[in-house]
Amino acid sequence: MATRARRPERREEPLSRERIVEAAIAILDTAGESGLTFRALAERLATGPGAIYWHVSGKDELLGAATEAVVSRVMPVGTADTTPQDAIRTLALGVFDAIDAHPWIGTQRGRTPGHSPMLRVFEHLGRQVQALGVPHADQFSAVSALQHYILGVGGQNAANAREHRPDMDRTEFLSTTAAVWADLDPEEYAFTRTVAAELRDHDDRTEFLAGIDLIVAGITARFGG
Amino acid sequence: MATRARRPERREEPLSRERIVEAAIAILDTAGESGLTFRALAERLATGPGAIYWHVSGKDELLGAATEAVVSRVMPVGTADTTPQDAIRTLALGVFDAIDAHPWIGTQRGRTPGHSPMLRVFEHLGRQVQALGVPHADQFSAVSALQHYILGVGGQNAANAREHRPDMDRTEFLSTTAAVWADLDPEEYAFTRTVAAELRDHDDRTEFLAGIDLIVAGITARFGG
DNA sequence: ACCTGAACACCGTTCAAGT
DNA sequence: ACCTGAACACCGTTCAAGT
Q: How far is the CA of A36 from the C1' of D17 (A)?
């Protein structure tokens, strides 16, 4: 009767890399990249900042692990029997949506030589480029182009999300941007002004996919497929 | 004789936004993004940190202004009489080299709605896409694809530069990466392993241009040109 | 109008001390 | 082996006080 604690009270699970990464993701999603501090993380895990360093080497590793965890979840498990073109679209859209849901991913690039969290994306794109029938010598270029485009869009969306006032939705943001563009110097920004109107009824996902299709078209035009 | 200071001693020029931005660029180039602090900047300008805030609203604006200053310099002044394809290559390569010389640019995305430092790149790409004969309705997509690709590569190069030990040159970096890739799990990273060898004799600029050509090929294939 | 520099409210990271 | 939390060496930014 005395040897057992009276109220079991669900003792806190011990700290683990996994729990730390999950907590970091939760903070990043709610408070953004600037909200993730070791103090905030420690508080959420009901411990001190120092404890985290036993499981994780520092903030860079933490951000990398969080990115890898989220990206892994959207990677396809089996190869669906669709065309490579469709598979690339699905894959790219998965990454796009992941960055949309977790904008902080967009700023994360590989830092460790070789093995970045985004290497999984590279791998899966590569398989589809192979399936397209691109010659071996051109596969790297083709995959790189797709990957850089996807991460380029992601980086931009992340930047947009960061400066978003929470009270400003996407439509309002586009509308503001369109107004700014229409007001630019007619000499210096002649082209930009001509496309300002388009901006207002823009769908980000549609536009993103148009770019993917463009690159896939370039791949098949140049390398066959 | 007494009204004039005896040693003219080249009195420090007064602080100005321009001088501050130049000093910031110099620090960014030598010490990297983490080296740019208001204290370091103040010391270089022989003043206190607070003085800088009279001319610049904060660190974000400072980074934006520095990016804009560097990007402006590589923008073409007149329209050379080449093909649009060549003009796009030249333009893209200019941005690529600028990011290579100033890696901190690679992480800078537009944050102010509408007018980012990279809008000049967008504008000049747009003019060439017009010259390619792309229909108006497709111009935005075409320019976006090029821009996102260019900034995607830039972001990656910036990340690589950041984690570079200064003693590790590009060849060594590629070689290390190739070794890591060749050692990956054969199931999980089947494709990546097959292109690991290519990595060793990679030229970044050539590879970058191959991607540009791919997208331009896609643009002309889909939208004519 | 512009500059100074101390002060404020934070950071990431370390480390002696605990269990 | 793992956790605690005070302490260190920084940050960006503000602001009373000077010229």
A: 37
